[in-house]
Amino acid sequence: MSALPFSKISAPLNALLAVVGLMAVAALTTPDIAPRSRLALEVLLTGIWAIYVLQLIGTLNRQRVSGSRDGMPGIVIDVLAVFVPLSAFLLADTRDQSLYCAVWLLKPLRGSAFFSLLGKVLAKEARNLIGVTSVFGIILFAAAFAGYLIERDVQPDKFGSIPLAMWWAVVTLSTTGYGDAFPQSFAGRVLSGLVMMCGIGIFALWAGILATGFFEELRRRDFVRNWQMVAAVPLFQKLGPGALVEIVRALRPRIVPAGSVICRKGDAGDEMFFIVEGSVDIATPKPVELGPGAFFGEMALISGEPRSATVSAATEVSLLSLHSADFQLLSSSSPEIADIIRKTALERRSAISKT
Ligand code: CMP
């Protein structure tokens, strides 16, 4: 049997297999599990392992045939997913063998766009994150130091040394509050309150840095993708760099499956579309097909009248849409392009009135 179909296991299926496998591992740690259930879970783990073997063979095969498509981390994860449980089966204590399948936790990372995004954000924000983490460390040590000085005589078992007081400081700074260690003196309680407030501030800073990092990275990706799409529309090649940046920000990408209606005759229309890839059918009395580089939907946008025809996707079509407010922006930054669009709208209107 060819291993290739298994090599293309998608990230969600990888995650599902890993979750099922890890639940089986967790169930196997239950002390009073019945022997038949144990056997069934072990067969399940062996089945998942066999799928991972085929996936590894497929990955290596694809690597050999078509060059490097899976990055190095993907291959390392595939190798670990097979060889760590295999080595455990051969070498580890019987009771612990299945625990080594925990390496499958890495599988969902493989090919997942989210984790690569997270990696980029962490790398980009590393300096700020390290800065806030340093502040966390400083406050943690200072809190443990102060807690030790204030409470050491009152509660020597909980605050008798700085390492002991450090546990209280972590729990308080993270505002977890297990309740196993807390100051009894008035000064100690004031200190606790201050440490908690610092903790809230530090976590807010961490969250803020990460949220901004994600937002900027996603915006950058959108910009790069839009830029490539805009470059595929000849009309925009007339734009200067400033106007190009504006239009890239204003356009919204959209993929429409074949056969779907994009706009219907008689509807109100406040956006127009540029075709990047694929083609659309315009249901005029004499049907027209428009392909890459063409635009449609400009008539309703300019005149404010209802759509003159129904437009549907002849093939899967990749579009960039422009809203009326952004069309005004385009008109002022690049009157030449706006004139072309207006002229085309007039020509199309006179073609409709002739039929
Ligand atoms: P609108 O009227 O907003 O919505 C339907 C669109 O179909 C219309 O804008 C034009 O962009 C397009 N359209 C209408 N008639 C023609 C035509 N004869 N040739 C090409 N496109 C057309």
CATH class of the largest domain: Mainly Beta
pLDDT averaged over residues: 91
The strand count comes to 8
Strand content: 5-15%
CATH fold name of the largest domain: Jelly Rolls
Key structural traits:
355 residues; alpha+beta; Four Helix Bundle (Hemerythrin (Met), subunit A); Jelly Rolls; four-stranded antiparallel beta sheet; 9% strand; disordered N terminus; binds adenosine-3',5'-cyclic-monophosphate
Descriptive overview:
This protein is α+β, with helices and mostly antiparallel strands. The chain has three domains: 4-112, Four Helix Bundle (Hemerythrin (Met), subunit A), CATH 1.20.120; 126-216, Helix Hairpins; 241-354, Jelly Rolls, CATH 2.60.120. Helices cover 62% and strands 9% of the residues. The chain contains 13 helices and eight strands. It has helices at 4-7, 11-28, 35-66, 72-91, 113-124, 126-151, 156-159, 162-173, 186-231, 241-250, 298-303, 324-333, 335-354; strands at 252-256, 261-263, 271-277, 280-282, 288-290, 295-296, 311-313, 317-323. The strands form two sheets. The protein has a four-stranded antiparallel beta sheet with strand order 1-8-3-6. Strand 4 and strand 5 form a beta hairpin. Helix 3 packs antiparallel against helix 4 and helix 6 packs antiparallel against helix 9 (186-231). It is flat. Mean pLDDT is 91; it is low at 1-8. Bound molecules: adenosine-3',5'-cyclic-monophosphate. The site of adenosine-3',5'-cyclic-monophosphate (CMP) has 17 residues, from helix 11 and helix 13.
